[in-house]
Amino acid sequence: MTLQTSSLVFKVKRNPPELVTPANPTPKELKLLSDIDDQTSLRCHIPLVTIYRHNPSMEGKDPVEAIRQALSKTLVFYYPFAGRLREGPNGKLMVDCNGEGVIFIEADADVTLDQFGVDLYPPFPCFDQLLYDVPGSDGVINSPLLLIQVTRLQCGGFIFAVRLNHAMSDAIGMSQFMKGLAEIARGEPKPLILPVWHRELLFARDPPRITCIHNEYEKPQLHDNNNNNFILQHSSFFFGPKELASIHRLLPNHHSKSSTSDILTAFLWRCRTIALQPENPNHEFRLLNVLNARYGRSSFNPPLPEGFYGNAYVTPAAITTAEKLCNNPVEYALGLMKKAKNEGTEEYVHSVADLMVIKGRPSYFYNDIGYLEVSDLTKARFRDVDFGWGKAAYGGVCQGYLSSILYVPYTNSKGVEGIMVLTCLPTKAMERFGKKLDDLFKIKGKSQILRSHI
């Protein structure tokens, strides 16, 4: 397997950033975030991108202007996004709905989409130019909640990139906002799914009470003193039907009804651990499973209302040691993961909200190689966002992180549908990780690694 590093360099000319405000007057009020929203772990910014090819039927139409005007109209419905977060007593976050607006950047790049390659997938070259970090805009409190850059390409395509204050929305909520924005850009008078606030559904109970075990917020007991002075490498891996079938064959037949996502997660958790080569066999490794309260075992009864765009997920953790994870088959990892996921009920969601109030909004313990959060974003369907130029050639997150693996739905240039896996590891570990995948899939005549970038 050969790791490919992108060498594409291009220039982006940006207009000065501007604030886009709601097209009509909106309520001036304070709106409390939920106790799931305002966790310390979500006080960060998340970049997302959708990429569009040239559409001859849209000749003469400007995507920048279409999206700018649609954004102003969309903010009438999603007016909290035009406000600013404030922090109240005991770290409680609220939105000051003051209509100040979101940051919008108009840009042009001297590059065509074809120059990015036949297949489009992260990490994208010069992405810091496609989503410019406006100085002074990256605070969580008292800062714009969205930063959007629309970049025209020389071929007639364009790139829509957005930076989201994660405390406001999860991936499902942000996808809903982007689809509503796209619908208005296509001429609809309002989003087809109207936004619903109702963050009180995920407030802590009165009195709060922790009824479940929440290992994801506890510091690991067994770990190494890791040397963090390593170079990280970002990579994307495509798993099509053949590769996923190969992973299924690693398990006994009685796992035939296990979901593809679960099996892939267990497989990657084990591969990643082996690739990291932890020195201490008792180093604690934990897998955090992202479960959304909108669906599945975590779903509410009655369900969260359609249009709810807040954070609605929890992350029950599976825990083991490096030695056990590496020396046991994939079935062992799958069993641990399923057990943890089964704990992620509606009661678990309420217990997390209560824990935030009782324990002062603790964060996940990120600073350890043994921590891994796996988030399946296939249901967010960012590539379905259509501003009038058709569905996106790529839609989703821009990169993985050392502490995470992210799944994005993907169709390659040959029309094969599958899952794009985004991750990040120290360079040597990424080489070992890629080789382990290659050793499995070369037997099937297919190499998995698509692109890597240091």
Descriptors:
single chain; 454 residues; alpha+beta; Chloramphenicol Acetyltransferase; 2 domains; seven-stranded mixed β-sheet; 9 helices; disordered N terminus; disordered C terminus; acyltransferase; Plant_acyltransferase; transferase; CAT-like_dom_sf; acyltransferase activity, transferring groups other than amino-acyl groups
Number of helices: 9
User: Could you say which overall geometry the principal axes of the C-alpha atoms support?
Assistant: globular
CATH topology title of the largest domain: Chloramphenicol Acetyltransferase
Q: Note poorly predicted spans.
A: 1-5, 443-454
Write down how many β-strands occur, each being a DSSP E stretch of 2 or more residues: 19
In whole angstroms, the N-to-C terminal distance is 17 Å
CATH superfamily of the largest domain: Chloramphenicol acetyltransferase-like domain
Structural class: alpha+beta
CATH architecture of the largest domain: 2-Layer Sandwich
Strand content: 15-25%
Query: What is the class of the largest domain in the CATH system?
Result: Alpha Beta
Question: What's the helical proportion of residues?
Answer: 10-25%
Q: How many individual domains?
A: 2
Q: Output mean pLDDT.
A: 92
- Tell me the major beta sheet: 7 strands, mixed
Radius of gyration: 22 Å
Order of SSEs:
EEEEHEEEHEEHEHHEEEEHHHEEEEHE
Pfam families: Transferase
Keywords: Acyltransferase, Transferase
GO molecular function: acyltransferase activity, transferring groups other than amino-acyl groups
Family: Belongs to the plant acyltransferase family.
